[in-house]
Task: inverse folding
């Protein structure tokens, strides 16, 4: 493997395989926990059943011995009846014969008078045996087993009953029952053998169900992927099918359709912008070219100063349009807040009013706002914003343009009001679009590029503000609202 080649992951990359693996692992953990609980619960319950069975057999044996009856050797549980002072067992069975207790009893005899009728349970170790016979219920090496016993005193047996048992009158007897774990262990092993294949089958079934369930659930995603792969930047008109189930895939499809819709709008806006820009560039170029071609065709009859003036005017128009287009391109790529500082909007408006070049007709340009009004932003961009608003007002004003700056709560408000023909209410938003022509007297026949208001609104939004056209009885009034900023002295200077 190449040293620069990334190491391949061993985990499955498919979402279906990952989901199946995760479901299998979770199921395995759950099955192990459940199996462990079942194993111990069955083992405990089986041990309790064995103890209850031994206790029942013990009571039966005690009743038989108390009546002077020697119990039969065939029994469900091992037992032994011993007597104090007697070497051999009184009775035995249920597997105890493998120890040959007829010669010597296996379990200890009572050392004294016990508590008659009281059942005692304790672990006892059985002795080892030299040989092992088929069907033995005890191991050859012996072992420690749980033993239950009950004592019978002299008052529990009559002389005839004692004689029938082969013990002297007044002897103390003890009845033993051995609780064997083989039944509980056999039951536990059987349950374990059943649980293992059942667990494996459940594990495989869970993984398969998870795999196919995820596969079915991802079918809409695959359809969405195939459709979105066919979308091109020039034609993002495709839409994905929204499932009617209402789950996460529906939200994904809705979001993708919304994104595709925005892309379609952006592509249409870009095409419209390119077409409008080409049209705007064609008009001054055509005028300039026609004027020069006429002058070159009839040099003797051409008014060269007028031709040069026309060429200069159209060139300036081309220059302004190119600068506006470059500014829009820079604004689209520049991060908001670059070069931000505290700017006195009132001082900026007053300076712009004083330094604005004289118009070609009698026009009064005033600014009302003596108190400082600080906002935070890029000084050059804010100056361009105000200049665009003033240029628009000057082009369409009849006699007067009024700038007003004031503070309202946490906002600084600047208005630019002219006494021109105004803007129809239905065009109040269209005037901010790029290259929009209006049918009334506020068209761009006065020399504008059609981008000034669009640039102004874009700059207002980049500074966290708004730019709107407010209704007025006379003329047009553009209102700029920007967030207030503390004065430079309050922040340590700028």
Result:
């Amino acid at each position: 493997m190449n040293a620069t080649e990334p190491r391949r992951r061993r985990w499955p990359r498919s979402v279906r395989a990952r989901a199946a693996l995760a479901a299998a692992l979770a199921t395995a953990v759950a099955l192990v926990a459940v199996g462990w609980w079942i194993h111990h619960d069955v083992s405990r319950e089986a041990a309790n059943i064995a103890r209850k069975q031994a206790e029942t057999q013990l009571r039966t044996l005690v009743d038989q011995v108390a009546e002077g009856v020697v119990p039969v050797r065939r029994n469900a549980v091992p037992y032994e009846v011993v007597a104090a002072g007697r070497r051999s067992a009184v009775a035995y069975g249920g597997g105890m014969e493998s120890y040959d207790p007829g010669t010597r009893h296996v379990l200890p005899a009572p050392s004294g008078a016990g508590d008659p009728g009281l059942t005692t349970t304790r672990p006892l170790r059985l002795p080892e045996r030299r040989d092992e016979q088929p069907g033995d219920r005890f191991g050859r090496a012996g072992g420690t087993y749980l033993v239950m016993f009950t004592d019978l005193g002299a008052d529990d047996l009559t002389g005839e009953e004692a004689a029938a048992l082969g013990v002297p009158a007044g002897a103390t007897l003890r009845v033993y029952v051995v609780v064997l774990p083989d039944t509980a262990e056999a039951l536990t092993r059987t349950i374990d053998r059943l649980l293992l294949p059942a667990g494996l089958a459940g594990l495989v079934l869970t993984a398969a169900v998870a795999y196919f369930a995820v596969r079915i659930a991802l079918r809409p995603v695959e359809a969405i992927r195939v459709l979105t792969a066919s979308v091109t930047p020039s034609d993002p008109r495709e839409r994905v099918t929204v499932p009617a189930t209402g789950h996460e895939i529906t939200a994904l499809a809705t979001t993708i359709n919304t994104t595709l819709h925005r892309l379609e709008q952006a592509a249409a806006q870009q095409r419209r912008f390119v077409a409008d820009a080409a049209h705007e560039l064609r008009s001054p170029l055509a005028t300039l070219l026609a004027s020069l071609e006429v002058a070159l065709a009839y040099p003797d009859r051409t008014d060269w100063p007028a031709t040069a003036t026309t060429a200069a005017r159209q060139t300036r128009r081309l220059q302004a349009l190119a600068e506006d287009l470059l500014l829009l391109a820079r604004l689209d790529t520049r991060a908001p807040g670059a070069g931000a500082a505290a700017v006195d909007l009132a001082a900026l408006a007053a300076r712009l009013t004083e330094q604005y070049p004289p118009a070609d007709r009698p026009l009064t340009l005033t600014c009302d706002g003596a108190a400082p009004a600080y906002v935070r932003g890029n000084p050059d961009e804010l100056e361009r914003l105000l200049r665009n608003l003033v240029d628009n007002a000057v082009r369409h004003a009849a006699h007067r343009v009024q700038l007003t700056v004031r503070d309202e709560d946490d906002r600084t408000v600047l208005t630019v009001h002219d006494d021109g023909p105004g803007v129809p209410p239905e065009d109040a938003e269209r005037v901010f679009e790029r290259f929009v022509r209006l049918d009334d007297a506020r068209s761009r026949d006065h020399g504008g590029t059609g981008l000034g208001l669009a640039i102004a609104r874009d700059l207002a939004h980049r500074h966290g503000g708004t730019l709107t056209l407010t209704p007025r009885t006379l003329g047009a009034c553009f209102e700029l609202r920007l967030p207030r900023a503390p004065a430079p002295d309050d922040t340590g200077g700028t």
